[in-house]
Amino acid sequence: MSDTSDREDRIYRMVQRFYELGNEDPVLAPVFAAAITDWPGHFRIVADFWSHALYGSGRYRGHPFPVHMHLDFGPEAFDAWLKAFTQAVAEILTPLEAQNALGRARHMTESFRVGLFPFTLADGTPSRMPPKT
Ligand code: HEM
């Protein structure tokens, strides 16, 4: 196998593993189940995203943020997402890929958190809506 197909194969397997772990998580599983019907198609899109994020492969040209706007999840989903992702990259990617992917993922979870939950309630919880006055 060439280096490129090795690495594409590794990225795809990492994405499969991520969703295997995510589907065992009580917070993430229902969010995934409600939105994802074509699993292989979804794995392909997300693997293309990571291929582009890690290697600038040009395989992904979409915009992840708007895709997440209509999803029904709370701010606690970010920790669960990062936990599953951290494990999946550690198990399957090379150490350098894992480190780069995690850096990118932390940055994106932070942007999603700020973009999707721009308000803070009186108890400090991030919220999609402003506090009721
Ligand atoms: C709370 C955390 C997250 C949850 C619950 C979540 C859930 C989902 C779901 C359900 C979809 C499929 C949406 C659909 O096809 O209608 C999706 C798509 C996607 N997610 Fe996430 N996600 C989260 C965070 C992230 C982060 C941090 C990244 C990147 C670092 C990411 C990258 C992607 C990508 C690339 C897609 C495909 C976008 C496209 O179709 O072009 N997600 N996510």
Automatic annotation (TrEMBL):
<keyword id="KW-0479">Metal-binding</keyword>
<feature type="binding site" description="distal binding residue">
    <location>
        <position position="42"/>
    </location>
    <ligand>
        <name>heme</name>
    </ligand>
</feature>
<dbReference type="Pfam" id="PF01152">
    <property type="entry name" value="Bac_globin"/>
</dbReference>
<keyword id="KW-0349">Heme</keyword>
<dbReference type="GO" id="GO:0046872">
    <property type="term" value="F:metal ion binding"/>
</dbReference>
<protein>
    <submittedName>
        <fullName>Uncharacterized protein</fullName>
    </submittedName>
</protein>
<keyword id="KW-0408">Iron</keyword>
<dbReference type="InterPro" id="IPR009050">
    <property type="entry name" value="Globin-like_sf"/>
</dbReference>
<dbReference type="InterPro" id="IPR001486">
    <property type="entry name" value="Hemoglobin_trunc"/>
</dbReference>
<dbReference type="GO" id="GO:0020037">
    <property type="term" value="F:heme binding"/>
</dbReference>
<dbReference type="InterPro" id="IPR012292">
    <property type="entry name" value="Globin/Proto"/>
</dbReference>
<dbReference type="GO" id="GO:0019825">
    <property type="term" value="F:oxygen binding"/>
</dbReference>
<keyword id="KW-0813">Transport</keyword>
